[in-house]
Specification:
two-stranded antiparallel ribbon; 4 strands; mainly alpha; 302 residues
Length: 302
């Protein structure tokens, strides 16, 4: 069991990273594009937002700037892949490692603090009158739910349907006269814009941006998508995106539960996070097979 404080913290992180998970879903499931750019675009969004707020811009303006920077980063990956024929995985790695240096250039140093600055979280806490441990998850949940609704609407437009078809059947979409390259560039850009917005929210919540805060982002995003699909299903795109968002929350709660395990003198520490994530993903991937075998075994012995 975890304490109420730990549960609210997991809920807060799950909703804060919800935009990131939706972005990863776009590239991983919709475009079938393995994109490691997110490990760089998350701190990019945090860096841009933090510098904007420190320079006197409104926190919402900082988030919009972060989204723009994230879109450009994703578009670069898409251009490297489609126009210069660089393998999508390699193209995203090249952009990711470039962003490490770019993020330091943006901040002027490896990290920047927002202590004493007025963030969107501070403004919402003052507006709602609720304590931070309640108001912050509510704010992030509202933002993630709004993004989810807009994304579902977008994917039902003719442009969105063309993007879905780009990932499902590239040859067919090309034969229909759709510019597949532009679809990939825009889709990867949109994905990283959402990831960068998530980074901006996380930075404003934790009061700092750090160049290393994006390490493992793609693993956490994929884990959330897979856990969500396993637990809540993926019969259609709308259901799958709801599942991905809920998977983000379940993933963070599972991490909190694992870090709370105590067996004698043994306890998990934050350095075990990658191991815990790997175990969660493997469990989510093999659980449908185990379930199918159990059902078959019961029918055989009935």
């Amino acid at each position: 069991m975890i304490s109420l404080y730990a549960f609210m913290g997991a809920l807060e992180q799950g909703t804060a990273f919800g935009l990131m998970v939706l972005g990863v879903y776009l590239t991983f499931r919709v475009l079938d594009f393995p994109d490691l750019t997110v490990d760089g675009s998350l701190p990019l969004g945090a860096a841009v937002s933090a510098v904007a707020i420190s320079s006197g811009y409104h926190p919402i303006a900082g988030i919009i700037m972060a989204a723009g920077a994230g879109f450009l980063a994703g578009a670069v990956t898409g251009i490297l892949n489609t126009k210069f024929k660089i393998l999508h995985l390699l193209a995203s790695i090249l952009t990711m490692i470039s962003l490490y240096s770019i993020n330091i250039r943006i901040m002027g140093r490896p990290n920047i603090t927002l202590l004493g600055e007025d963030t969107l979280i501070d403004q919402f806490v003052n507006f709602s009158g609720l304590p931070p441990y309640l108001s912050t998850p509510i704010l992030f949940a509202l933002i993630s739910a709004t993004a989810l609704i807009i994304l579902i609407w977008f994917l039902k437009t003719s442009f969105g349907l063309a993007m879905l078809a780009t990932g499902d059947n590239p040859k067919m979409i090309t034969s229909l006269g759709v510019n597949r390259d532009m679809m990939i560039i825009f889709g990867v850009g949109l994905s990283n814009a959402m990831v960068a917005m998530s980074g901006a929210l996380v930075a404003q919540n934790q009061g700092a941006a750090d160049v290393n805060m994006g390490i493992g982002t793609i693993i956490a995003g994929l884990a959330s998508v897979i856990i969500g699909e396993t637990l809540f299903g993926k019969v259609n795109v709308t259901r799958a995106m709801f599942s991905a968002l809920l998977g983000s929350i379940v993933y963070r709660i599972a991490i909190a539960l694992a870090l709370g395990v105590r067996i004698g003198d043994f306890a998990f520490t934050p350095s075990d996070l990658n191991l815990i994530t790997a175990v969660l993903v493997v469990t989510a991937l093999i659980s449908p097979q185990i379930k199918t075998k159990l059902i078959g075994w019961r029918h055989h012995n009935a």
